[in-house]
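Hey, weird one. I pasted the Putative oxidoreductase sequence into the form twice and got a warning about non-standard characters only the second time. First submission, copied straight from the form history:
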Amino acid sequence: MKAIKQFFATDQKSWSLLLVRLALGIVILPHGMQKALGMFGGYGFSGTVGFFESMGIPLILAVLVILAEFAGSIGILLGLATRFMAASLFISMTGAMFLGGHIHNGFFMNWFGMQKGEGIEYFILVLGMALALVVGGSGRYAVDNCISKKLK
C-alpha cells in the first residue's frame, strides 16, 4: 500500500509540475493522434503498426508505442497515473531517438531541410520533461491528487 501511495503522491501545490505536465501532454498528443487515429497526416493505427513492422519492430512494441503516445499523453494531461504515463513516454521516446535513427542526424532538428533527418534536440526536451514528471509527480489540478487524498 505504501508503494501505491508513493506512486500517486506529488506536491499538490506545484505550478511547475502542472506546466511541465500540460506542455508535454499538448506536444505529444498530436503525435499519438497521428499514430492511433490517422489525424494530422498520420498513418492511423494499422498503418503505424505496418510501418513499425517494416522497420523490424514487433507488433507488441508498435502497439505499446501507440498507447504511450496517445493514451499516455491523455493521462498526462489529466494527471492520471502521471508517473507511469511519463515513464512510458520516456521509454518510447528513448527508443525513437535510437531506433528511429535520430541519434545519427546530430543534435539539431531539421528546421531548414539541410540535413538527412531530425536530430535529437526535441527528444532531449521530451525526455527531460517526462523524467521530471516521473520524479516529481503530477503537480496541481491532477486526478492523481484525488486518488492520493482517498488513499490517506
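That's the output from the first submission. The warning seems to come from a hidden character in my clipboard, not from the data itself. The two ends are 10 Å apart (CA to CA).
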